Amino acid sequence: MPAAASESAHCTPVSGRVVLCRAGFEGEAAGELAAAAAAAGLSGFARASSGSGVARFELHDVTTQNALEAATPWPRLIFARTAWSLHASVQALPTHDRVTPLLHAVQTHGQHYAQILVEHADSDSGRELSALARTLAPPLRGALQRAGVLHAQAARDLYVLLSAGDAALLCSAARGAASPWPGGIPRLRFPSAAPSRSTLKLEEALLVLLDERERERWLRPGMRAVDLGAAPGGWTYQLVRRSIHVTAVDNGPMQPALLESGLVEHLRNDGFRWRPGKPVDWLVCDMVEQPRRVAALIAAWLRDGACRRALFNLKLPMKKRREEVLLCLDLLHAAVPGIELRARQLHHDREEITVLALPPSAR
């Protein structure tokens, strides 16, 4: 190992948690981590640089790393696209040899890993590192293999998060505990037949918020759904492509091809007033409305048994976004005892989050 490259870099051990998020929502992501840590009785501090697409929580006591990981599982975090445990910060990486100091830092930690992934944030500065991430991954993987650090049966994966051309965070996650997609972003292709790009929001939601078994059970051909605020049909399109019958409620026009499918009934009506004659399998909603008003509407449908499960977006205010989300989720919990809520700010979401609501009878 070339000593000069290793000695020129600076490796600082750090214990904590790192998440990737939408740029501009670092404060919300850091707030989630801090709140979960406090609820678990863990001491530390949050770090969030605006526009970076990264937030982290650093522990005062390194022995509480496992407790922090248990308190902040990725599926329970709303504003995190993925989440890893933080082990070290490596600075001053020499541009002629980044592999040697990174290998040395990983070896210092003394763990084995099943695989290595080199990541970058989804931000202006992070995307500038995408080419470096691609070129760095193969030689770093080779060096780790030769050093005996990688073992296929190891319990954890290693993540190298590039924060600059000469800096990185070393992180890890138990196998299956972090997002399966690089950067926590499923790579979806816009269907040319879809009427709007909003269709990708529902496609991503069904991929991220449901597992494969749930998709098989709950998205069967012949099921019935209602799409509130449907026009021009981006969300309806995702249901129709799965052969689900849709009642599209909106005063605006729907894409003609959807109406010609034979699976869509278009009702020009007020989505806040209309109700189906009998319960439907799904209620979906992407209306541009105050989040608490949408939450109350969904709660009424579920409480009254008008739908078996619901998937909807909450458009967030400019300020106190996380506080508004928690108020809306509390409203749903109070209205439907025992409800399970899975909430996430998806890649295709913007100033909004997506929520899957499952009352006890739906599970």
From TrEMBL:
The active site is at K315. InterPro entries: RlmM_FDX, RlmM_THUMP-like, RNA_MeTrfase_FtsJ_dom, rRNA_MeTrfase_M, SAM-dependent_MTases_sf. GO terms for molecular function: methyltransferase activity. Residues 18-81 form the RlmM ferredoxin-like domain. SUPFAM superfamilies: S-adenosyl-L-methionine-dependent methyltransferases (SSF53335). PANTHER family: RIBOSOMAL RNA LARGE SUBUNIT METHYLTRANSFERASE M, RIBOSOMAL RNA METHYLTRANSFERASE FTSJ DOMAIN-CONTAINING PROTEIN. This is 23S rRNA (Cytidine(2498)-2'-O)-methyltransferase RlmM. It comes from Metallibacterium scheffleri.
